[in-house]
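STRUCTURE:
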């Protein structure tokens, strides 16, 4: 069984921001593991998110949107929300960080790139802060 800390990235549809965060986090460290989930999941990962992640050498094309459930909440070490914490009354406040990342859905590719890079900067800082 994997005993590494679990960082759970949460957004509404689990199709863009949280999926990109999961991919970036898991690429940058092996001392913890990232998972992602949403409250109102999409049918698939946004194709533009897949495209901009591939540009960084990270393949999220096989990931699937997942609904946030109690087991994820119980097992998570830390929750990182993408700017929509009011939708997650079950995430414990003492373990939740809100990054307020804008939703790139329905925006152009450059907007996705900007959001991806913002998420990466936040993750690099989080990894330093948590010594991962």
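SEQUENCE:
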């Amino acid at each position: 069984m994997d005993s590494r800390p679990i960082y759970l990235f949460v957004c509404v549809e689990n199709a863009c921001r949280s999926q990109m965060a999961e991919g970036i986090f898991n690429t940058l460290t092996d001392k913890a593991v990232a998972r992602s989930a949403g409250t109102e999941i999409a049918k698939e990962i946004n194709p533009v998110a897949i495209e901009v992640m591939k540009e960084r050498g990270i393949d999220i094309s096989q990931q699937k949107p997942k609904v946030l459930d109690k087991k994820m909440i119980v097992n998570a070490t830390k929750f990182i929300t993408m700017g929509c914490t009011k939708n997650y009354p079950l995430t414990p406040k003492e373990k939740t960080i809100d990054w307020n990342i804008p939703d790139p859905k329905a925006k152009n590719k450059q907007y996705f790139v900007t959001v991806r890079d913002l998420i990466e900067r936040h993750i690099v800082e989080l990894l330093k802060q948590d010594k991962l």
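REMARK: Residues 7 and 78 are 5 Å apart (CA to CA).
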